[in-house]
Specification:
The strands form three sheets. A four-stranded antiparallel beta sheet has the order 1-3-9-6, with no helix packed on it. It is built from one helix and twelve strands. With 181 residues, it is mainly beta. The longest helix is centred in the first third of the chain and has 18 residues. The protein has one domain: Sandwich (Immunoglobulin-like), CATH 2.60.40.10.
């Protein structure tokens, strides 16, 4: 029996599968879709959280945001927002540890079925109260039990409603220590 390092064995096992998938793509490539996202109300000048729900087609999985090997492509969300709206932290769920036929001794960190990604959005204090659309892309690589498919990008669009909020607190100017006559 031949010994090899875990990452080397996994790479050796996956390479022919990856090459085969690129030469003979399936009739219909696997997909991930963004489930409907309700409008999220966010007060200007304050951060708000939006939860995006994605669904991986049945029978497939995608690598988590923190895959278990360097050469695996992580699932990653990149967003762009209108001027005066800041995209903050993007929070990914922990992946499920699973093993597959192509490398039964290795546990891979993956998402399957539905998974949620949290996004912190902060409209600046001077932004006009209105509805805005946030755009971006989810980059992922889908695999089944036997093969991985070329990486794909899914367009991501979701709405937010920026609310006016209470006016900023005003401080009275300090009183003069001098008596005015």
């Amino acid at each position: 029996m031949r010994y090899c390092a875990a990452k080397t064995c996994l790479l050796a096992a996956l390479l022919p599968v990856l090459l085969l998938a690129q030469e003979f793509p399936s009739q219909r490539p696997p997909s991930v879709k963004l489930l409907p996202t309700p409008i999220t109300n966010i007060t200007r000048g304050k951060p708000g959280n939006v939860t995006l729900r994605f669904e991986v087609e049945r029978g497939y999985h995608v690598n988590s945001n923190t895959p278990s090997a360097e050469f695996l492509i992580p699932t990653a969300l990149k967003l762009t927002a209108p001027t005066d709206i800041v995209i903050g932290r993007i929070t990914y769920p922990q992946g499920q540890e699973m093993s597959f036929e192509f490398a039964p001794e290795e546990k891979l960190s993956v998402y399957s079925g539905e998974f949620k990604v949290g996004v912190t959005v902060r409209p600046l204090a001077g932004v006009i109260a209105a509805r805005y659309a946030i755009h971006g892309q989810l980059k992922y690589q889908a695999c089944d039990k036997a093969a991985c498919y070329p990486p794909k990008q899914l367009a991501v669009d979701f709405p937010i409603q920026v609310l006016k909020g209470p006016p900023p607190a005003r401080r009275n100017p300090a009183q003069s220590p001098h008596i005015h006559r």
